[in-house]
Amino acid sequence: MFVERGYDATTMDDVCVETGLAKGTLYHYFSSKTELRAALRDNFCNMILNRVKSRISLCESDDFFTRIDLLVETAVESYLDTPELRDVIFFSGDTPLRSVAVNDGLVGYISDLLSQGTLEGAWCVDDPHALSTLIYYSIHAIADDALMSGARRPRSAVRVSKLVAITPD
């Protein structure tokens, strides 16, 4: 509904009519449209994270370069598969994108992967959280670049391991 009508044009009454929920029931779970969108965003982010984890689980556990590349590739593909929903969740209403990363499990997952790779000697990352935040926003930027160019796929394969020299000291 948010995708079809737009976030700003959709009211809680519209949600009640579309879902068949009583207004009291809807407000019992979500006190506002902003809170409802936050729940949608959490579910969407968990879906992306689960896709990433599933794809990475097929890799050798010590193949960190392939794992980080697949993480980025899978996240970008996932965002590009649902651009309208992604726009509603991340770019509409009153919640700026900068507040989303705080609650998105993907940032923590990236940070854990970077930390694990550092411990295993695959690379040397002094601040995994800072780099994971950079990678997270780069994923969004790569998806936006593809969408703004009219494509549904990135211009080329995204390989973090080729873009950034993350090697041991």
From TrEMBL:
Where would I find the HTH tetR-type domain in this sequence?
1-48
Gene Ontology molecular function: DNA-binding transcription factor activity; transcription cis-regulatory region binding
Recorded hits in InterPro entries, A to Z, give: DNA-bd_HTH_TetR-type_CS, Homeodomain-like_sf, HTH-type_TetR-like_transc_reg, HTH_TetR
Keyword hit for Repressor: yes
Q: Per its UniProt record, what PROSITE patterns does this chain match?
A: HTH_TETR_1, HTH_TETR_2
Listed A to Z, the keywords are: DNA-binding, Repressor, Transcription, Transcription regulation
Q: What positions does the DNA-binding region cover? A: 11-30
Which Pfam family, giving just one, matches this sequence?
TetR_N
Record's SUPFAM superfamilies? Answer: Homeodomain-like
* Organism superkingdom: Bacteria
* Protein name according to UniProt: HTH tetR-type domain-containing protein
Which species is listed as the source? Sphingobium xenophagum
Q: What is the lineage of its organism?
A: Bacteria, Pseudomonadati, Pseudomonadota, Alphaproteobacteria, Sphingomonadales
